[in-house]
Structure formats: structure tokens, C-alpha cells
Amino acid sequence: MAIKKYKEDFVLLAEAGFIAVNQADEDAALKLFKAAELLDPSNILPKLGFGYLHLHKLELKQAVKNFEDVLDKDPQNDMAKAFMGLCLSMMPDAIAKGEKILTQTLKSKDPMIKEMSGSAIEFVDKFVKTNPGPAGKGK
């Protein structure tokens, strides 16, 4: 079957999907993640990618749903935890929950996840939890 021929390209497609998200190419990212998902439907990487895409678009509820799906299959996935913590920390009704998750992922063995978690906590403290300036206050 044709799909077997391309199984070895799974990681390439998934990684290219993440690059497409970083390039703000939603169409390419969706196609790449869907192609990767077609090659290996049980792998969580495309689902993580869809969540990452939603995060970049600030579609936080959809992103959280994708990260929860990843964590249902792999509860120890620190990347999904960190991304979910970041999303939740930007949602007014879930800031504390997001910070708690980010504090946990700050202890990750992966240095990139540690760094991202620390930056996210700093961002929340500096921008999310502060009172609005004069322009942000209602009259």
C-alpha cells in the first residue's frame, strides 16, 4: 500500500508542520499535520502540532483540548503540559491552574521545556496578572 511507502517520512512531516506554524503558514501546517496523522494515527505528535497551531492563533480553548488529548494518551508529556499551562495562564478564569502546571514543568529534565516554562511564568507575572494602565481602564 502507498501509505507504507511514506511511513518513514512521519517525523519529517510533523517537524515541517511545526516549522510551518512558526512561519505563520496555517494552510501548510494543517496539511503537514494531517499527512503525519494519516501515516501514524496513534502517534500524539500531530495532535500536539494542532494544539501548537491553535496556541499560535490564540485559540486557547481549542489548544487546551488538543493538549488534554495528548496528555490522555501520554500523561508524562512535559511539552503538552507546558503548552497547556501557557494557554491556561492566559485565560482569565484559569490563570492559577496554568501557573501551577508551569511551575511543575519548570522542573522538567528537558532544558528547553524548563526555559519555556520560566519565560511563560515571567510573562504571566509581567503582563497577564498586572492591572491595566490608564488606557485599559473603563470609564
Attribute tags:
single chain; 139 residues; mainly alpha; 2 domains; 0% strand
What does this 3D model show about the protein?
It contains eight helices and no strands. The chain is an all-alpha fold. It is elongated, with a radius of gyration of 17 Å. The longest helix is centred in the last third of the chain and has 18 residues, at 111-128. The model has no long low-confidence stretch (mean pLDDT 93). Helix 3 runs antiparallel to helix 4 (45-56). The chain folds into two domains: 1-43, no CATH class; 60-130. It has helices spanning 2-6, 10-22, 26-39, 45-56, 60-73, 78-89, 95-105, 111-128.
Q: Give the overall silhouette.
A: elongated
Detail the poorly predicted runs: none
What is the makeup of the main sheet?
none
Proportion of strand residues: under 5%
Distance between the termini: 65 Å
- The SS-based structural class is mainly alpha
Oligomeric form: single chain
| Helix count from the secondary structure assignment | 8
Work out the helicity level.
Answer: over 70%
How many separate domains? 2
N-to-C series of helices and strands: HHHHHHHH
Q: What is the arithmetic mean of pLDDT?
A: 93
Number of strands: 0
Rg for CA atoms: 17 Å
